[in-house]
């Protein structure tokens, strides 16, 4: 048995986190002594014995002997153990890939194992169940609940972070029927959103491209605290690089990233608010006593860069130690001059022209001074990590020049600014314009790599907008994505289901008018078959005791429900999908629960291995999910035997 496993991340995940009907069913199982029922209940009055026995001889889902005998062997109860003769088996799977895609990322397994490993009722919980069930329920049931745990339950599952497909069991849960029944709701709950949001993240990653930094910014818009924490964990698993969610950073070690908000920018009004203006050089060798003036000086220099150098008067300004010669003052606007005038000594010969120019206006004056002050304050607080939100007033007329002035001043002191965030407007256009501005500065002022200054974009981004941005061409390096990502706006739930596939070794099938809802019975083995080029070709389910597919040996893979769909596959690699993650009392080898980072790597690798036509957004090719010929025959035999024959009158 594995070492002690912590409880679920969310303390609300307890044995009570289930639907009432699981308790009423558990009571009814208990009342009819079926909760631990170990009978070999082999009864197939409608079955064609000859056919069934020949199918089962090889499939071995049920001992063929019993069918030869055609016996109803009556109930024998082994109340203390579930694994004597038979077991109850449920498959947890989904029927359709989300978001119109053809793949899903399996997530949430670790939390399931944490629940199972710690599954015990407290006295308080038992009292509550007792108060919630009809008073006619016998007290012996509560004694039964008192002693149950999951030591008799076995979990086989696909590794978390794997790319998975409809109908293939993600988990097989075996154990006493009453206990496993209680697990249905929490397990489905733990897998559903986790897999959905991990898939959503993977899809956003696919559109954004490998080289982009993806930041999950969804906490404020997530569906409650658990939605927010889960989103951060599973978006990271699905390929995001970092989160803004601090609690998730602490809980799971996810890298934290962030910028600042519009409120920070608009909270500043004047440079008087900056009381400490000094900033040390990055190497600590020197101190710039007035970083504010240095920035102001750079702003003026930047503005001049845009002006016609031939024109008008000559002015020389000096700000303390720093001297600038302006060949054009026409574009100087009132605002900035008013702000500067007390700091500026205008040399005699240029004075008149300088004052005249105040009235003329121009590009320079467009920058918003309170925004500049906000940027300066942020840079003084984080000189090594300066990143500015540049769309509070006007991106190109204010935010970008202000950012550049601050960054260039930082550069003078040996720091390199991280970049800007755009949070409104045409993100493609603004990113391209910003990039041009950065490149022009690199060229003109010989600032190494300034052209590569980072551009982060946010604002209601989703797969579609990422795709549109790609088509238009953009210069964005990082995307901050919230609402659409974490709420799974495009599809709010993944239809994960939990279906009984075998009880006491007897296969069960759930029929439906809708063929896609027919369950695949029996304890199964599942394999992924890889082709010559290294891509996964098909997933195949077989009966538990069928020989596994072999490398280089042709195997017939059949669509589980469509007779005409089948293909021979010669696998170059065979991977068994279901592994034991909770051995119950068998104590056999259990897969380790890997750290989140390792699961993320698995996820990224597996997504990278998929053939591109399965991954594309528009009309992706369905990945083939199949059954062996024997399992196919068995499913259909069982189907015919379970479905009543209609009568026409
Ligand atoms: N180039 C683009 N192509 C396609 N969609 C874009 C592009 N640029 C931005 N978008 C998207 O267009 C939408 C614009 O949102 P909205 O209409 O709220 O405007 P806004 O720029 O946010 O304005 P506001 O100043 O009111 O915040 C967002 O979802 C954004 O992601
Ligand atoms: O747009 P999302 O994908 O949800 O990304 C997160 C958003 O959250 C913040 O907005 P804020 O809460 O300030 O609201 P607003 O931008 O809608 O005004 C941020 O500026 C992003 O725009
Ligand atoms: O850090 C950010 O920029 C951020 C964080 C959460 C939401 N929006 C933006
Ligand atoms: Mg926004």
Written overview of the protein:
The relative contact order is 0.14. Helix 2 packs antiparallel against helix 21 (629-642) and helix 7 (177-208) packs across helix 8 (224-237). The chain has 21 helices and 25 strands. It is α/β, with parallel strands linked by helices. Residues 38-53, 61-85 and 307-365 have low confidence and may be disordered. The protein starts with 19 loop residues before the first helix and ends in a 7-residue tail after the last helix.
Task: Report the major sheet.
Answer: 6 strands, antiparallel
From the helix content, strand content and strand pairing, which structural class follows? alpha/beta
What is the general shape?
elongated
Give the helix proportion (percent range): 25-40%
Spatial strand sequence of the major β-sheet:
18-17-1-5-3-24
Radius of gyration: 33 Å
N/C terminus separation:
61 Å
Beta-strand proportion: 15-25%
The oligomeric state is: single chain
Tally of strands: 25
Determine the mean pLDDT. Answer: 86
Record keyword descriptors for this entry.
single chain, 649 residues, alpha/beta, six-stranded antiparallel β-sheet, binds adenosine-5'-triphosphate, binds 1-O-pyrophosphono-5-O-phosphono-alpha-D-ribofuranose, binds nicotinic acid, pyridine nucleotide biosynthesis, metal-binding, nicotinate phosphoribosyltransferase
Topology (elements, then pairings):
Elements: H1 20-31, H2 49-59, H3 64-69, E1 88-94, E2 104-105, H4 109-117, H5 123-132, H6 140-147, E3 154-157, E4 163-164, E5 171-175, H7 177-208, E6 213-216, H8 224-237, E7 242-243, H9 246-252, H10 262-266, E8 279-280, E9 287-288, H11 291-305, E10 315-319, E11 322-326, H12 334-341, E12 345-346, H13 351-358, H14 369-381, E13 387-389, H15 395-412, E14 419-422, H16 427-445, E15 454-458, H17 463-472, E16 478-481, H18 483-486, E17 496-503, E18 506-507, E19 524-530, E20 536-543, E21 555-558, E22 566-569, E23 573-576, E24 579-582, H19 596-609, H20 612-615, E25 624-627, H21 629-642
Parallel strand pairs: 6-7, 6-16, 13-14, 14-15, 15-16, 20-25
Antiparallel strand pairs: 1-5, 1-17, 2-4, 3-5, 3-24, 8-9, 10-11, 10-12, 17-18, 19-20, 19-23, 21-22
The structure holds adenosine-5'-triphosphate, 1-O-pyrophosphono-5-O-phosphono-alpha-D-ribofuranose (PRP), nicotinic acid (NIO) and magnesium ion.
Cofactor: Mn(2+); Mg(2+)
Family: Belongs to the NAPRTase family.
Keywords: Ligase, Magnesium, Manganese, Metal-binding, Phosphoprotein, Pyridine nucleotide biosynthesis, Transferase
């Amino acid at each position: 048995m594995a070492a002690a496993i912590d409880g679920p991340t969310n303390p609300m995940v307890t044995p009570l986190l289930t639907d009432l009907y699981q308790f009423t069913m558990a009571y009814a199982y208990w009342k009819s002594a079926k909760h631990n029922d170990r009978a070999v209940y082999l009864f197939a009055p409608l079955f064609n014995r000859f056919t069934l026995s020949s199918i089962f001889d090889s499939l071995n889902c049920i001992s063929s002997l019993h069918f030869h005998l055609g016996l109803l062997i009556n109930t024998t109860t082994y109340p203390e153990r579930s694994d004597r003769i038979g077991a109850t088996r449920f498959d947890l799977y989904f029927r359709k890939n989300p978001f119109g895609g053809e793949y899903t990322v399996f997530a949430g397994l670790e939390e399931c194992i944490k629940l199972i490993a710690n599954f015990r009722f407290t006295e308080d919980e038992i009292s509550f169940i007792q108060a919630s069930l009809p008073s006619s329920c016998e007290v012996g049931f509560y004694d039964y609940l008192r002693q149950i745990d999951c030591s008799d339950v076995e979990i086989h599952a696909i590794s978390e972070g794997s790319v998975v497909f409809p109908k293939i069991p993600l988990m097989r849960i075996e154990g006493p029927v009453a206990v496993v029944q209680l697990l249905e709701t929490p397990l489905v709950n733990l897998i559903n959103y986790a897999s959905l949001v991990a898939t959503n993240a993977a899809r956003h990653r696919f559109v954004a491209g490998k080289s982009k930094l993806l930041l999950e910014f969804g906490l404020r818009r997530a569906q409650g605290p658990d939605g927010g924490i889960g989103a951060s964990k599973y978006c990271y698993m699905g390929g995001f690089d970092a989160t803004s969610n601090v609690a998730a950073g602490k809980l799971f070690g996810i890298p934290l990233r962030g910028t600042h908000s519009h409120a920070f920018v608009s909270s500043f009004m004047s440079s008087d608010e900056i009381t400490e203006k000094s900033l040390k050089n990055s190497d600590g060798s020197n101190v710039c006593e007035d970083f504010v003036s240095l920035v102001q000086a750079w702003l003026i220099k930047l503005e001049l860069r845009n002006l016609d150098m031939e024109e008008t008067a000559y002015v020389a300004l000096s700000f303390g130690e720093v001297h600038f010669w302006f060949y054009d003052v026409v574009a100087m606007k009132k605002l900035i001059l008013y702000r500067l005038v007390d700091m500026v000594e205008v040399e005699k010969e240029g004075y008149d022209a300088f004052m005249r120019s105040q009235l003329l206006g121009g590009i320079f004056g467009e920058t918003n001074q309170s925004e500049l002050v906000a940027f300066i304050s942020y840079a003084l607080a984080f000189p090594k990590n300066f990143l500015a939100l540049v769309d509070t007033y006007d991106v190109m007329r204010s935010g970008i020049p202000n950012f550049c002035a601050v960054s260039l001043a930082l550069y003078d002191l040996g720091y390199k600014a991280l970049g800007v965030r755009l949070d409104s407007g045409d993100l493609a256009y603004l990113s391209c314009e910003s990039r041009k501005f950065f490149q022009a500065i690199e060229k003109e002022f010989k600032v190494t790599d300034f052209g590569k200054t980072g551009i982060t974009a946010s604002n209601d981004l989703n797969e579609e907008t990422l795709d549109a941005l790609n088509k238009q061409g953009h210069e964005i390096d990082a995307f901050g994505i919230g609402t659409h990502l974490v709420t799974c706006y495009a599809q709010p739930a993944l239809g994960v289901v939990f279906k009984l596939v075998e009880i006491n070794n007897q296969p069960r099938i759930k029929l439906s008018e809708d063929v896609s809802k027919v369950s695949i019975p029996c304890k199964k083995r599942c394999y992924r078959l890889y082709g010559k080029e290294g891509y996964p070709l098909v997933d195949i389910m077989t009966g538990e005791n069928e020989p596994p597919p072999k490398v280089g040996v042709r195997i017939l893979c059949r669509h589980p429900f469509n007779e005409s769909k089948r293909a021979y596959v010669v696998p170059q690699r065979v991977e068994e999908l279901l592994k034991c993650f909770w051995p119950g009392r068998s104590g056999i080898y259990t897969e380790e629960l890997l750290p989140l980072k390792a699961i993320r790597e698995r996820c990224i690798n597996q997504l990278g291995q998929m053939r591109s036509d399965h991954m594309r957004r528009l009309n992706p090719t369905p990945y083939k999910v199949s059954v062996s010929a024997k399992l196919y025959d068995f499913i259909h035999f069982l189907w015919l035997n379970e479905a009543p024959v209609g009568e026409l009158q």
